[in-house]
């Protein structure tokens, strides 16, 4: 890659990996889009012309910031990569048009761990609730705000999640309250149309990483989304004394694939 980046927004569109943001300098010229072609094994830099109007480019979008949330949505049959920084600013990049613009902001820092399944954005909050909103609500034309709703039917699972407080920690690194507050306590992913949820749990004085697979169904009458836990179990155990890992574990990424 041409630029060093930290916690950039990443999305896969038409088999190519797009990387946007995650740079230090508050300079629009540094906000180039880089794309990786897996078939050719090459990186290239894209121009983002035509540029949007200046009023849609607030200075704080270019401020040094981490991008803890990103993904790919589809609006009116067009795929877009979205990014959310720690200030709650949302922007969208359209690879087919090489245009990026701002979207609806989400300043509630309790909503973390965004993940897109079937063009619905899911998030989690510290209390163990799983929330959702329509992907189209990221657009500014959606009415100015994102309407987050609760995934119903997961009250029993919430009890287990409330005991999980996964923080960013690694050997030789002192956890900061800032990172602890920004990063989610559990990790959302998916296997096909089903949600995968990872969290840590203390069992027999050992830390376990647990996983639950949740099927999702939208009720036609009410529009609510209900979840059903298909299975839930420990997937790995950290066999080290607790005094070596006093701050739990941090699940960074999850990826599903077919065998």
UniProtKB/TrEMBL annotation:
Signal peptide: none annotated. Residues 43-63 are annotated as: Disordered. Residues 1-235 form the FKB95-like N-terminal Kelch domain. Residues 43-58 have a biased composition (Low complexity). It holds the Pfam family Kelch_FKB95. It comes from the Eukaryota. This is FKB95-like N-terminal Kelch domain-containing protein. It comes from Brassica campestris. The lineage of its organism: Eukaryota, Viridiplantae, Streptophyta, Embryophyta, Tracheophyta.
């Amino acid at each position: 890659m041409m630029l060093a980046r930290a916690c950039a927004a990443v999305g896969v569109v038409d088999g190519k990996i797009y990387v946007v943001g995650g740079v230090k300098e508050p300079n629009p010229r540094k906000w180039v889009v880089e794309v990786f072609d897996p078939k050719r094994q090459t990186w290239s830099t894209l121009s983002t012309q035509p540029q949007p109007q200046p009023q849609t480019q607030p200075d704080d979008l270019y401020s040094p910031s981490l991008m803890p949330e990103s993904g790919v949505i589809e609006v009116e049959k067009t795929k877009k990569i979205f990014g959310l920084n720690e200030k709650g600013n949302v922007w969208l990049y359209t690879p087919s048009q090489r245009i990026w613009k701002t979207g609806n902001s989400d300043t509630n820092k309790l909503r973390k761990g965004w993940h897109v399944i079937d063009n619905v954005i899911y998030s989690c909050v510290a209390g163990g609730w799983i929330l959702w909103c329509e992907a189209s609500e990221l657009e500014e034309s959606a009415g100015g705000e994102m309407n987050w709703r609760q995934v119903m039917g997961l009250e029993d699972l919430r009890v287990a999640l409330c005991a999980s407080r996964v923080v960013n920690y690694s050997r030789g690194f002192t956890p900061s309250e800032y990172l602890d507050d920004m990063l989610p306590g559990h990790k959302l992913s998916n296997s096909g149309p089903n949600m995968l949820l990872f969290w840590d749990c203390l069992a027999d004085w050992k830390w376990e990483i647990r996983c639950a697979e949740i099927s999702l169904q939208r009720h036609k009458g009410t529009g609510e989304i209900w979840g059903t836990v298909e299975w839930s179990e420990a997937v790995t155990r950290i066999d080290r004394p607790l005094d070596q890992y006093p701050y739990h574990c941090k699940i960074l990424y999850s990826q599903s694939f077919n065998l």
